[in-house]
Design a protein that fits this description.
Elements lengths: L6 H15 L12 E4 L11 E6 L6 E7 L2 E8 L9 E7 L5 E6 L4 E5 L5 E7 L3 E7 L7
Parallel strand pairs: 1-9, 2-8
Antiparallel strand pairs: 2-5, 3-4, 3-6, 6-7, 8-9
Length: 142
């Protein structure tokens, strides 16, 4: 009996072996965090623009931000440890915002409504807590 293994069969089997061994296993990395809201000075000067600042402890985390049920940002965020700053997202005019939704690593939604502050500061301790603070004053990152 002749051996009918041709070079094309060998190449196919080799390709299939490489393809199977290189598949990346993606596990569900859904975060389980608590949410803590802080207060700030929201009575002083108000500009028209509202901005979210993602600050400390972000490390290649998936962040999604929606305003009035429309996604305005989706991407990975990493904190610059020298500044304590990761990303800012301009939400537009405070007068036009009825609801803001923030989601980190497909965890619980952080819901904000009835905004009276122009600046929202978000800090994240991985799988533990999301801290949200509000203020109308912005101190530049140095």
């Amino acid at each position: 009996m002749k051996n009918y293994i041709t070079p094309s069969i060998i190449m196919f089997l080799l390709f299939r072996l490489i393809n199977v061994s290189c598949k990346k296993v993606v596990k569900d990395t859904k975060s389980n965090y608590g949410i803590k809201f802080g207060t700030g000075n929201c009575l002083d000067y108000k500009s028209d623009t509202t901005v979210i600042f993602f600050e400390s402890h972000f490390d290649n985390d998936l962040v999604q931000v929606s305003v009035n049920n429309k996604e305005v940002f989706k991407g990975t965020v990493t904190t610059d440890k020298t500044l304590g700053y990761a990303k800012d997202v301009n939400l537009g005019s405070i007068k036009n915002i009825s609801k803001v939704k923030i989601n980190i690593n497909k965890g619980k939604d952080v819901l904000l409504d009835k905004l009276t502050c122009n600046y929202i500061f978000v800090n994240y301790i991985k799988d533990s807590i999301v801290s949200v603070k509000f203020d109308n004053k912005f101190v530049p990152y140095q």
